[in-house]
TrEMBL record:
Transmembrane segments: none annotated. This is EDD domain protein, DegV family. One of its GO terms (molecular function) is lipid binding. Keywords: Lipid-binding. Signal peptide: none annotated. It comes from Actinomyces ruminicola.
Amino acid sequence: MSLTVVTDSAACLPPALADAHGIIVVPLHTMEEDDGAATTARPAVAELADAYRAAAAGGNEVLALHIASALSGTADNARLAAHELAAEGAKVTVLDSGASGGALGLAALAAAEADDARRGAARARESVARSRLFFLVQDLSHLRRGGRIDRTTAFAGGALGIRPILTTGPEGIGVVEMVRGAARARRHLIAQAVRAAGGTALTGPRPPAAPVRLAVHYCDDPAAGRALENDLADAMVEAGAVVESIMRSPADPASRVHLGPGALGIVVAPHLEPPR
């Protein structure tokens, strides 16, 4: 018996990378409302059950690792699908990751290196617990419309050129710091990531420079993603951080609905040694 990891498109895993690790990705959905605005929906129970059924083929254990329940109801449908598969004799372990973006994607990659669901879930939890996601958006109204941030944060972010650096976690989206001006906010985005990786870009106590994996996300501008990756890599070298890999990928369509055009994100995750 071996392990197959199933995640969702919020993990922002490049298809070739997911395929190379045998990870099945279930898409989150986008749709247009009557007023023309875009909205999103979780995968249906039947879609998840089909994915788990394919993952369990040949007697494999299945680890279903999904976007934080504070951001989507996917994990709720995943549990219903797992219950359906249990009646068929398949073993599916569902884990609400408490994460999104590359924090979820890199956790899925770490889990896929394990040979059973118990060890895979432990690796995923460790990866998420030690990961940080930082991101910037050009217009907070998209997050506000989707209920991802409160009215006060949206108002502050729209006033006088203030750009909040945001993060996600089990509780949803929070503010890391408020920065005035787009260029300065981008520099602080990189600085936050460098500090999370054990670098010296910000003052105050910092964690030791243990090896990390990075992810860089963009919404609609691949050139902006490449530029952010290059600047981030240079900053990490200058600060003495130890970077094992950088994954660059666009945000998935459902995430783009809530982030809006021009958003940029960075994930810092631990580099976990492959299990023996």
